[in-house]
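Entry 14. Structure prediction run on the chain below.
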Amino acid sequence: MTQARDYNLLVLSDLHLGCDVKRTAPLGDPARTGLDRALVHFLDHHAARRAGGRRWRLLLAGDVFDFVAVTAMPAPRLTARFSVRDEEQRYGLAPEEEKCVWKLRRIAARHEEVFHALARFLIAGHDVQFIRGNHDAELQFPSVQRELVRLLSRRAGVEGDALRALEERIRFHAWFYLEPGLLYLEHGNAHDRYCLQTGFFDERPCDASLELPMSSKVLRYFANRWAKDQEDLDSADQMSVREYLAWVLRMGNPLHIAADYFAMVLRVLLPIAKETLRGTLQPGAMTRRAGLVAAETRRSRVRAWLSRFLPASREQADQLFAAASKPAEQSFFATAQLFYVDRMALLALLIAAGLAGLVAGHGATRLLPALLASALFAILNPWLARQRQCDANLLLHDAASRVADILDVRYVVMGHSHQRVDAALSANTRYLNLGAWTQQEHELPHLALIDERAELRRYAAPPARVSTLVGHVDQRHALAG
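Output returned:
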């Protein structure tokens, strides 16, 4: 039984605002992209039109901002509040709290009209709530949240009680949003070990700097330097060898790209190797005890998060915590798999074994080690490939099934994978993925939940038109005004 609500829901995700805030881009010029125009029209359209007389609650479900893609640097005269290290000159500002606040201000300046449209949406009496994703994990910093509220309220131009009421309508969620009995919403990166940072379940980063998830480290130390557009590497794992080589040749000097790639791999792998070795050398009981204490602390946080929506939910919170992935950096093998280091090492060992046989062997037996090595590679390579879990679409579908088993809801909704999905999980539950990203520059994918019915839609403007997505068929209808 769902509770009566005085609002309907709109859901957007994976907008990646800020992915165009680059060192070479003039910070003073607003981005006049199709995405910005669609967002502004979308927000203004819904701000003025209530379905059934109910206000809207806009849920921005992760990766709305793209902090790690921001490579713009402050002018020297503006760096008084924080220093910029040599490494940051090369890779962009580190994910430290004050620097993330600076990045958010640059994103707002770059997407000025979008922030004004969000302010108008709030002034009209609607809500805006944010869920963290992997590209905007920096929303975990309290000062970044406060700055986002300030940026929106300043553009609203209200004061006193009106300002306080507006700020009350802006909320942040660490992991998920729940309408009991109806809808469960999260970004999805909690189920993708390469996009889940170590401190995901912490109230705030333990240190002054956020520990980036593995995928963001790849972006910061490699992709930001070479990818011309964010989508260049979006489907890298699905590229054939031919497509990957074509990408490399299109981006620049292959030798420079290879050197940067292997430097990035070493930068990421060496600290994990050291930590793995340290854990191996420490007494087992001490390590296990510390791990149990940390896990219980994180479970208690998930209980607190779920209790905001569902009282007396300890068992379900513990099940949600258990359903989440573990960050890749907790496993050297998992990290090595991301970069194919496991298969490169296997291939190198087998080649060495084959060459040793050719050098040391006699007669026909000289070929035997090479043949055995080839057979072993043919067996182990497919097995290693199955262990490498990088397909976010499959990971999220499995995660949605687990969530549906834990919570009695009609809809499980995620983003993250950039692939639209509308799939039945059971007779009463559907898994919906928005599939939204910046490739859809003129039609904005979103979810609308009106009363108790959820629909995947696309919004195009102007003129304002909605496409209701049903399977592979678009049922189009024009909106008034």
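The chain has two domains: 7-213+310-330+391-478, 335-387.
Filed with the rest of this week's runs.
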